[in-house]
Amino acid sequence: MTSLAEALGFAPDARVLILNADDLGLSHAANVGTYEALRSGLATSASLMVPCPWSREAASRYRGEDVGVHLTLNAEHERYRWGPITQAPSLLDGDGGFPRTVDDLWDHADLDEVRRELRAQVERAILWGFDVSHLDSHMSALQLRPEFFDVYLDLAVDFGLPIRLSGASSERAIGFPCRRLAAEEGVLFPDHLVAVGGVGSRRAIERTVRALRPGVTELYVHPALDTPEQRAFDEDWAARVDDHHLVTFDAELPARLRRAGVELIGYRQLRELQRSLAPRAELQNN
Amino acid sequence: MTSLAEALGFAPDARVLILNADDLGLSHAANVGTYEALRSGLATSASLMVPCPWSREAASRYRGEDVGVHLTLNAEHERYRWGPITQAPSLLDGDGGFPRTVDDLWDHADLDEVRRELRAQVERAILWGFDVSHLDSHMSALQLRPEFFDVYLDLAVDFGLPIRLSGASSERAIGFPCRRLAAEEGVLFPDHLVAVGGVGSRRAIERTVRALRPGVTELYVHPALDTPEQRAFDEDWAARVDDHHLVTFDAELPARLRRAGVELIGYRQLRELQRSLAPRAELQNN
Question: Is the pTM for the entire model greater than 0.90?
Answer without folding.
Answer: yes
